[in-house]
Structures are given as structure tokens and as C-alpha cells.
TrEMBL record, chain A:
Glycoprotein among keywords: no
Name of the protein: Carbohydrate ABC transporter membrane protein 1, CUT1 family
Gene Ontology process terms (BP): transmembrane transport
SUPFAM superfamilies: MetI-like (SSF161098)
GO cellular component, one term: plasma membrane
Gene3D superfamilies for this protein: MetI-like (1.10.3720.10)
TrEMBL record, chain B:
InterPro entries noted in UniProt: Bact_solute-bd_prot1 (IPR050490), SBP (IPR006059)
Organism: Arthrobacter subterraneus
Keyword Nuclease listed: no
Sequence intervals crossing the membrane: none
Span of the signal peptide: 1-25
Domain of life: Bacteria
Protein name in the entry: Carbohydrate ABC transporter substrate-binding protein, CUT1 family
A Pfam short name: SBP_bac_1
PROSITE patterns: PROKAR_LIPOPROTEIN
Stretches assigned to coiled coil: none
Keyword Signal listed: yes
Upper taxonomic lineage: Bacteria, Bacillati, Actinomycetota, Actinomycetes, Micrococcales
Keyword entries, A-Z: Signal
UniProtKB/TrEMBL annotation, chain C:
PROSITE patterns hit by this protein: ABC_TM1 (PS50928)
Protein name: Carbohydrate ABC transporter membrane protein 2, CUT1 family
Organism: Arthrobacter subterraneus
GO CC terms in record: plasma membrane
Keywords: Cell membrane, Membrane, Transmembrane, Transmembrane helix, Transport
InterPro entries from the UniProt entry: BP-dep_ABC_trans_perm, MetI-like, MetI-like_sf
UniProt-listed PANTHER family: INNER MEMBRANE ABC TRANSPORTER PERMEASE PROTEIN YCJP, MALTOSE TRANSPORT SYSTEM PERMEASE-RELATED
Length: 281, 455, 300
């Protein structure tokens, strides 16, 4: 009985849309035109068009690149590096660094997106800086849209990994690493052979979570490049939005949503498995 | 007691849920459900929006004339693209659908098919001022079934706006009257030589500027080629494999490759027109661009990009056909309308609001403020209209050679495919031939092979 | 959607508030601090701060551009220009309704749901917890198109109340996790005493357990609040009329219209909008100590 409000809320607003998305993806529902009035069941048509759409594999690839480079490599390694360095640095320095990194993460996403837009804009701060160094101005958002959104996502999201790893490193017993170093292992060796294995659970958890978060990034990309130019930064969430709301094809956009849900669900299940192994009942 | 404390929080929550489910938009959206409230959705561009002024005035007049009726104005800020999406999103649900709204003519047929618009035939027949609207304008409000669903607020044309100072400084004679695409390139190259950092002749391209890309750029080119437009009225089929399409893309490519236009990156910015009209032309950085007849509305006193000297500096010229072939010039016309929501609970009041906005006096003010081309004959004859700005005559003259977009329900999607073709070409992503082939494919996917004719 | 905190919970039994993490590295007693580490860190921090400095400087510069520059003259003109009811106060007020509303709904529902999960061991618990966890992980962005369709069907478009409940639902799985963890650390013995006195389970929950876990619930409330406050995509799709729009959406519209003109005002508006969550975040870390919830929720 006390579970009821939670079940109702989750049932209507989370399970509802998920069930709906499977149904909706088999219709030609639209925002305008005759299909808006009488959406029809069109079976797998949306999926056949989706798999024939040259934008789909491109968008999928861009999504994979975005997740891999900005989250799995960027946020993850930078976050771990920061967490390790913070333990070795002077206290005031670590404090200030912590605040700086977390600041980008605490900002509302739309504000972070504007800040990143302004930074990479052709008359923006980055070109100002490269200009000081005597380098030619580059229109980042236009010429290297993926690089720009990847760097922006690293900037915005690293704090999360950093905090996860700070918490994990706090649990590594001092004696173990010290013992390793007394045995003559260097700092790098200790890190790779002692510290990393000890926090491997946290690493796995973190990877899974930032992958899921990055998979869902919409606002940052929408504000910075809107998926352009010529769809060179159109990840799946952007593609779904454009198809559904800009080109009015709700059914088609829903089919893309289903693909994203399946990818997300696969990662979620993997994550849950991981936890199960960790906490046998 | 035990029972009470057990259920209270859960029950409260459940009650809230039910409340939000049933009452829909009562959460704050509005009292639109009540029978004497009208909700009006329209676009508000910038702080100084002539349409906003018109709506405020109409609200006042209407509320004074209809005691007890409240008009709720819901201006939507943002680009045209944004406005159209917002409007479409709210039309899907009867509770959020507006009673009266501002509708772009090219969305009209599609939205009629969706069942969003009220058929106005009977009501228009009983409205004595309807005869004052000119026939061409009335066409704009008609759908495939021959019925009228919207009343036009104004129409427009597109011409070349050029900065006389920039052209004169480069040794180009003014008034300038290009007669073919070559004349355009010649002027642009001459100006580029004289003023290397300038943008001598810019035309929009890419998906950023949306309909602006096609209306103020690509169609001026395409409709001036031998191939003609997008759609063959006679066979009622869309045209694929058009040489004119490729030539038009190639022309844009030349402009961007030779740096005669804004940079491709600038072109993709949805707000590039603000920079063009607000900075580049006033600061003599640009020779010429293709823009709507409504450009003076931004420059005139109180406009969004005020520039009082525009009348002395700017000149206009009709856009030439490809090789100067008949009829010598080409233009595009569109325009916006007011329509009544199909689901309105007060069709009579809603229609009355619409006609209040459309009185001669109100429409004259709006037409002048927004530099529209008049759709009411009694507005067109008014001295205030004729003297509104020095260009009224010039931009009205091209009505003789103007074209209208194919008003079919698939147009919006096809337009996007055209915009994508221009974007691919100016960013170097595809050659004109490749981009045209991609467009042909997209076209067939949208309307079906059977509705396409190969040229 | 970036989901601060929302994805952190793991089944854990050690959720006791603890300090540590950001700002208070325990490594301090691990040999003497290294200058190289400090220098490298400083450099990285600089990279993180440079983009932010534009925001702050531009907001006080009446002639701001997208370049980072010290204002020629310090000016509050940008702030005074946007401090109108229409531009700032109404959107912020809507934000407050959405955020406080969804945080309150979430906390109530989460406490109710967490209680049986924490106190009674039934066969139902584990599957439920894993389902909830599964929900936590799903990308909310992915379901916005179907959510829109669902809202059309249920006539809930452009309703602040419905949007509030939707946002509550999206953060509920996370909140249930965190709440359960906090609740696990409240000893059962106190309630048992109350039960002996004849109090119902619910009474024990509201009068004994909830007061004891107030700090934990505060954390949950604030995190849901921060998350809802910063959300852009959800209200962007579900709310249209100006009187219902929260600040994230009105900032976006402002950018769409004046993004190439009024940089300074955009920055000023952004700062006003970001300020409450920054304050709340600082509050959480001050009052509850470092990244307490993070470490509390994460360690299993």
C-alpha cells in the first residue's frame, strides 16, 4: 500500500511512455497533415525506412563516437586523473580545483551549453586564446562540430567521475599502496597493479553510468550545433527530436526512441548484473 | 485513527495525480476551457513586433465590444521555425489548441488536412468587408477542397536590396539593374576586388535559416531557370532530375566558394539575417542581398534593427532570370494569415476577433508597421500605405512576376530537403549534382515515385 | 538529460552520512604534497574555469561580445534590462513551482516506498528494487517523443502540474534508492518500541523514522530540486505558453532571438537562473559535508 504512489507515478509517467513508444513506432502519427487526424497502423514501415535512411547509421556512429570519446575516455580518465592528483596536491589547490571542476557540472544544462557555445564560437574565447598563441582562427562549431561537443561534454561531465573516484580512492587502505611502494614499485606501477584493481568495481559502475548519461545528452548538442552542419553532429537524441518535432513525423521519431531505449536497456541490464554479482543476496 | 494516518499522504498524492490528469491545462495554462475566453497564439519577433501591437489593439477593441469575454494573448518568441513547431505541438491536443492563431500560408494545407482549421466559408460570406480583399490574397487562404480556412494579413515579395554606397565605391553604376545571373556575379566580383573584406552579394543557404533559405534565395534562382519551379501544376507532380535545380545549387556554390557571400558558418546561423540587416548592410560591409519586401520594417523608426538612413543608402532591384529570359525577373511571395481553430468552443467569437483584427484601420497600421504588401484594396489605396517607405512601389511591382510555393501538404518536408541540398553544397559536403540527386531521392521518399516527374 | 546524482545509487547498506570526497581529500596524510601535482591540477582547473569566466565578465559588460574581456566599465545594465516580470520573474517562479513541486512529490512517494523496502523483507523487494534501478538508468531523453504523444492522449500538455508529476516520476527511482539507504541506517529498535506502544507502522514512520532521517531527506529533496531546476528538454517539449515556461526555456528563446545581439543580457539571465542551484549545492556540501550523498549512495 505505501508503495502505491510510487508505482502509480512510475507506471503512468515512465512505464506508460515506454509501452506507448512501442505502439507509436508502428503508426504514422504526425504533427500535421492527414496523418495527424487519423494515424494509421503501418507495421514495420518506420523501421524499414529507418534502416534504409542513410542518416541512421551515421547518427548511430556519431553517438558511439560521442559516448566513447567524451565519456569512456575523456570524463573517465580525466576524472580518475583528477581524483589521484587531488590526493597528492596541496590542500588549498585541491579545494579550488574541486570547486572549478564541479562548477561546470552544477550549472543548469542550458547555461552550460551557452557557455560552451560562447567558448567555441568563431568570435569566442577559444579563438581569442589561440590567437594569442599566433594560431589562425578556426570555426570550431562549424569545422569540428564533434570535437567541440565532445570537449564540451568532457568539461561538463568530468566532475561526476572525479567524485566517484574520490570516494573510491578513499576506501583503498593506505597500507596496501604503501606496502607496494616499499616493495619498490613505482607510482605508476602501484597505480596500475594495486590501486586500479582495488577500485575496479567503481570503475565499472562509473563507466556504465556515464555511458548512459552521455547517451542521453540532448541540450548541449542542440544548443551548440543543433546537429549540424550537414548533420555532422546529429546524435540519436537530436535525430529523434528533429524527425518528430521539426519534420512532424512523430511515428518515425518514436521508432528512433525505441532504438535508444533498447540500447539504454542493454546497458542498464549489464549494470544491474554487475551490481548483483557484487551484492549476492 | 490508524487508518487515517496510514492513507493520508498516499491519498493526497493520488488525488493530486488524478487532478493533474483530469484538469489538463488547468495547471496554469489557462481558463481557455471556460466559454468566454479566447486564446490567441501568434509569433512575436523582437521587442518591437508589429503583430504584437496589432494583437494588443485588437484585444482592447474586442473586449470593449464584447463585455465579459476575455482574450488571452499568447505570443511565442523565436524564429519562424520555432513558432511553427510550437504551434503544431499545441494543436495536437484539443485542450491546448488555440481559438485564433497566426498561420504561415505554406503550412495551411497541411494543417487543414490535419483538421486543425475551421472552415470559414459561411462566416466569410456573411462578412461585408471580405470583398475588400484582393483575389490573389484570397487564394492564399484556400485549401485543396476549395474552401477558405484563413484570412491573409498581408503578403510580400522578394527583391535584391543593395547598398548604393558600396556599389558606387566599387565603380558599379547605380541604380543597378542586373539582367542575368552573370550580371550578379560581375557586380559581386567587382565589389570584391574594390573591397576585399566585404560580402558583395549574399544569398541565404542551409537549414539554419529555414524557409528563408528557399524563399529569399534558392527559389529566386530555381524559378528563373528554364526548368521552372519545384512542382508541375499541369501534371500535379513534383519535378526531379531538374537541370535548373543543379544550376541553382551551382550558383550558390560559386557565391560561397569565391567568398562573395557570408561565410558558410555564418550562413548556418539561424540569426544570420539579423547580422545581414542589422550590421553588414548598415556598416557598408555588404553589397547586396535578397530579402523580403518587409525589410524596411526592421530599419524604420521603432524597428528591431533601426537604421534611419536606410532610405538614402539602399536601393532595390528585381531578381533577374538565369539568362535574362522572359519574364526577365522573378520573385517569391508568401505571407501569413489568421485562422480559427477547428476545436474552438466559440467559433462566432473567434471569427469576430479575427475580423476585428482585419478592419481597414487595424490592417493599415499593421501593413505599414510591418512593411507588408496590402491585401485589402482600401489599404492599398491609402496614402499612409503608399508613403510608408520609399520602396513600396518597387516591391509591389514584382507582384507581376512573383511565384507562390506549391501549397500541398508535403511541401514543408520537401522544403527541408531543398534546404539540406543547399547546405551540402555550400559546406562542400556534396557537388551540386550529388546534392540534387540526394534531393531527388528524398523527394521520391516523401511523395512516392508516382507523384514525381523526371525532367 | 544530464542527471546529477540520479544515477548513483547502488544497493548498499552503508549510507550513513560521511564526509570525504571533494574538497577534503584524505590523501593529505599520504606523504608530503607534491608541487608537480599541484601545478598540473592548477592547469586543468584553469581549462575548466576559462569558459565560465566569460559568463561572469560578460554579464557585467554592457558591450559584451562572445570574447572574454574585462568590461570597459563595470555595469549592471544587463541585469536591470532583464529584471522584468515577463522576462525573468515569471519564468523563475515557474521554475520554482516545477522544482519544489516535483521534489516534494518525489520525497513523499520515496519515503512511502522505501519504508517497506527497508523494513520488511519480502520476496517482492528485490525484483522491485531492480526494476526501479532499471528505470533509473534509462535515458529520459529517449522517451520524450512518446511522452509527448502520451501527454496528447491524456490531455496534459502545457500543464505545470502534469509536468511536475512527470519530473517527479523521472527522479523517483533514484530517490527511492537514496531514501532506502538513508532509512536503513535508522535503527529499527526505536520503531519497535513505538509498535509496542500500539502505534501503526505508518505512524512510526512519520513520527519516528522521518524526523530521524531529516538530513537525508533534505539531501534527496535538494537533489531532485536541482535536477528539475536545470532541466531544459522536458519543459521544452511539454510546456508552450509563455505563462507556464520555466527559465531554461525562456533563456533558450531569448538566445534564439537575441543570441547574436544581446550577449551580455543572455549572460546576466543565465547567472540569475544558475544562482539558486549553485547556492543549494554549496549549502549541501557545507551542511552535510563534502560530497556526502555521493559517497553515501555509491559505496556498496
Amino acid at each position: 500500500m505505501p508503495l502505491l504512489p510510487a508505482i502509480v507515478l512510475i507506471g503512468i509517467f515512465l512505464a506508460g511512455p515506454i509501452v506507448w513508444s512501442f505502439y507509436g513506432s508502428f503508426t504514422n502519427a504526425a504533427l500535421t497533415g492527414a496523418n495527424a487526424k487519423n494515424p494509421e497502423w503501418i507495421g514495420l514501415d518506420n523501421y524499414t525506412s529507418l534502416f534504409a535512411d542513410p542518416l541512421f547509421p551515421k547518427s548511430l556512429l556519431l553517438t558511439v563516437i560521442f559516448v566513447l570519446v567524451s565519456a569512456v575516455i575523456g570524463q573517465n580518465f580525466l576524472g580518475l586523473g583528477l581524483a589521484l592528483l587531488i590526493r597528492r596536491a596541496h590542500r588549498p589547490v585541491s579545494d579550488v580545483v574541486g570547486i572549478c571542476v564541479v562548477a561546470a557540472w552544477v550549472l543548469p544544462e542550458i547555461v552550460a551549453a551557452f557557455v560552451a557555445y560562447a567558448f567555441f564560437f568563431r568570435d569566442g574565447t577559444l579563438n581569442q586564446l589561440t590567437g594569442f598563441a599566433g594560431l589562425p582562427a578556426v570555426d570550431w562549431l562549424f569545422e569540428h562540430p564533434m570535437l567541440a561537443i565532445i570537449l564540451a561534454n568532457v568539461w561538463r561531465g568530468t566532475a561526476f567521475s572525479m567524485m566517484v573516484y574520490q570516494a573510491a580512492l578513499d576506501d583503498v587502505p593506505q597500507e596496501v599502496t604503501e606496502a607496494a611502494e616499499i616493495d619498490g614499485a613505482g607510482g605508476a606501477k602501484t597505480l596500475v597493479f594495486v590501486t586500479v584493481p582495488m577500485i575496479r568495481r567503481s570503475i565499472a559502475t562509473n563507466l556504465m553510468l556515464i555511458t548512459l548519461q552521455t547517451l542521453a545528452v540532448f541540450t548541449l548538442i542542440y544548443v551548440m550545433t543543433a546537429g549540424g552542419p550537414t548533420n555532422r553532429s546529429t546524435t540519436l537524441p537530436i535525430m529523434a527530436y528533429e524527425e518528430a518535432f521539426r519534420y512532424s513525423d512523430i511515428g518515425y521519431g518514436t521508432a528512433i526512441a525505441v532504438v535508444m531505449l533498447i540500447i539504454g536497456a542493454a546497458f542498464s541490464l549489464a549494470y544491474i548484473r554487475l551490481l548483483r554479482e557484487r551484492n549476492p543476496s | 485513527m490508524r487508518g487515517a494516518s496510514r492513507t493520508t499522504p498516499a491519498a493526497a498524492l493520488a488525488a493530486l495525480l488524478v487532478l493533474s490528469g483530469c484538469s489538463g491545462s488547468d495547471g496554469g495554462g489557462g481558463e481557455e476551457a471556460s466559454s468566454n475566453t479566447l486564446r490567441i497564439i501568434y509569433q512575436k519577433a523582437g521587442d518591437a513586433s508589429p503583430l504584437d501591437t496589432l494583437m494588443q489593439t485588437t484585444k482592447e477593441q474586442f473586449e470593449a465590444a464584447n463585455e465579459g469575454v476575455t482574450v488571452e494573448l499568447e505570443p511565442v518568441e523565436g524564429t519562424d521555425e520555432d513558432y511553427n513547431t510550437r504551434l503544431a505541438l499545441s494543436q495536437r491536443s484539443p485542450d491546448t489548441a488555440p481559438d485564433v492563431f497566426y498561420e504561415d500560408t505554406f503550412r495551411l494545407r497541411s494543417d487543414v488536412e490535419a483538421g486543425y482549421l475551421l472552415n470559414l466559408d459561411e462566416r466569410l460570406a456573411g462578412w461585408d468587408e471580405w470583398v475588400s480583399f484582393n483575389e490573389g490574397a484570397k487564394e492564399a487562404g484556400k485549401a485543396d477542397d476549395g474552401s477558405t480556412y484563413a484570412v491573409p494579413l498581408g503578403t510580400d515579395t522578394r527583391v535584391i536590396w543593395y547598398n548604393e554606397r558600396v556599389l558606387e565605391d566599387a565603380g558599379v553604376e547605380v541604380p543597378w539593374q542586373p539582367e542575368s545571373w552573370n550580371d550578379l556575379l560581375e557586380m559581386a566580383r567587382t565589389v570584391k576586388e574594390a573591397q576585399p573584406d566585404s560580402r558583395p552579394f549574399s544569398m541565404y543557404a542551409g537549414t539554419g535559416t529555414g524557409e528563408g533559405t528557399v524563399m529569399q534565395s534558392f527559389y529566386e534562382l530555381l524559378y528563373g531557370t528554364e526548368s521552372g519551379g519545384l512542382y508541375d501544376e499541369e501534371s500535379q507532380k513534383w519535378i526531379a532530375g531538374s537541370q535548373g535545380f543543379i544550376d541553382s545549387l551551382a550558383f550558390l556554390k560559386t557565391l560561397y566558394d569565391e567568398e562573395l557571400a557570408v561565410t558558410p558558418a555564418e550562413a548556418l546561423d539561424p540569426n544570420v539575417w539579423q547580422v545581414v540587416l542589422g550590421t553588414m548592410l548598415p556598416e557598408n560591409q555588404m553589397g547586396a542581398t535578397v530579402e523580403g519586401s518587409y525589410a524596411p520594417s526592421f530599419w524604420q523608426e521603432g524597428g528591431m534593427l533601426e537604421w534611419p538612413e536606410y532610405a538614402d543608402v539602399m536601393g532595390v532591384a528585381p531578381f533577374p532570370t538565369q539568362d535574362g529570359q522572359e519574364p526577365g525577373a522573378v520573385s517569391m511571395s508568401g505571407g501569413w494569415t489568421l485562422a480559427v481553430g477547428a476545436g474552438t468552443e466559440n467559433p462566432d467569437l473567434a471569427f469576430e476577433f479575427l475580423t476585428t483584427a482585419m478592419t481597414q484601420e487595424n490592417l493599415l497600421q499593421y501593413t505599414v508597421d510591418n512593411s507588408q504588401i496590402a491585401v485589402r484594396t482600401d489599404v492599398a489605396d491609402a496614402p499612409e500605405y503608399l508613403q510608408a517607405n520609399p520602396f513600396v512601389e518597387d516591391v509591389s511591382a514584382v507582384l507581376d512576376v512573383t511565384n507562390y510555393r506549391p501549397a500541398t501538404s508535403s511541401y514543408a518536408e520537401i522544403s527541408t530537403a531543398v534546404q539540406e541540398a543547399t547546405e551540402a553544397v555550400i559546406t562542400g559536403g556534396a557537388t551540386p549534382e550529388e546534392a540534387a540527386a540526394t534531393y531527388d531521392e528524398a523527394l521520391k521518399a516523401i511523395v512516392g515515385e508516382e507523384n514525381v516527374v523526371e525532367e | 538529460m544530464s542527471v546529477p546524482f540520479s544515477s548513483t545509487p547502488t544497493p548498499t547498506t552503508t549510507a550513513a552520512p560521511r564526509t570525504g570526497g571533494a574538497g577534503s581529500p584524505r590523501g593529505a596524510h599520504r606523504g608530503s604534497p607534491s608541487w608537480t601535482a599541484s601545478a598540473v591540477l592548477g592547469l586543468i582547473a584553469l581549462c575548466f574555469v576559462v569558459p565560465l569566466s566569460w559568463l561572469v565578465l560578460a554579464s557585467f559588460d554592457a558591450e559584451a561580445t562572445y570574447e572574454t574581456a574585462l568590461p570597459a566599465s563595470f555595469s549592471l545594465a544587463n541585469f536591470t534590462a532583464i529584471l522584468t516580470p515577463e522576462q525573468t520573474f515569471l519564468p523563475l517562479w515557474n521554475n520554482l513551482i516545477l522544482s519544489a513541486g516535483s521534489a516534494a512529490v518525489t520525497v513523499i512517494a520515496a519515503v512511502l516506498a522505501a519504508y517497506p523496502l527497508s523494513r520488511f523483507n519480502t520476496r517482492f523487494n528485490r525484483p522491485f528494487l531492480y526494476t526501479v534501478l532499471f528505470g533509473t538508468c534509462l535515458p529520459i531523453t529517449a522517451i520524450m517523443v512518446p511522452v509527448y504523444s502520451l501527454f496528447v492522449q491524456l490531455n496534459m500538455l502545457d500543464s505545470l502540474a502534469a509536468t511536475t508529476f512527470f519530473m517527479a516520476a523521472t527522479s523517483l527511482p533514484m530517490a527511492i534508492w537514496m531514501t532506502k539507504n538513508f532509512m536503513d541506517s535508522v535503527p529499527v529498535s526505536l520503531e519497535e518500541a513505538a509498535w509496542v506502544d500500539g502505534a501503526s507502522a505508518m505512524k512510526a514512520l512519520w513520527h519516528i523514522v522521518v524526523p530521524l532521517m531529516r538530513p537525508g531527506l533534505g539531501v534527496v529533496f535538494i537533489f531532485v530540486f536541482i535536477q528539475a531546476w536545470g532541466n531544459f528538454f522536458v519543459p521544452f517539449i511539454l510546456l508552450f505558453s509563455q505563462q507556464n515556461q520555466p527559465a531554461a526555456v525562456s533563456i533558450f528563446r531569448f538566445f534564439g532571438q537575441f543570441g547574436t545581439i544581446a550577449y551580455g543580457q543572455l549572460a546576466a539571465f543565465s547567472i540569475l537562473y544558475a544562482l539558486p542551484v549553485i547556492v543549494l549545492y554549496v549549502l549541501v556540501s557545507r551542511v552535510f559535508g563534502g560530497s556526502f550523498a555521493m559517497s553515501g549512495a555509491l559505496k556498496g
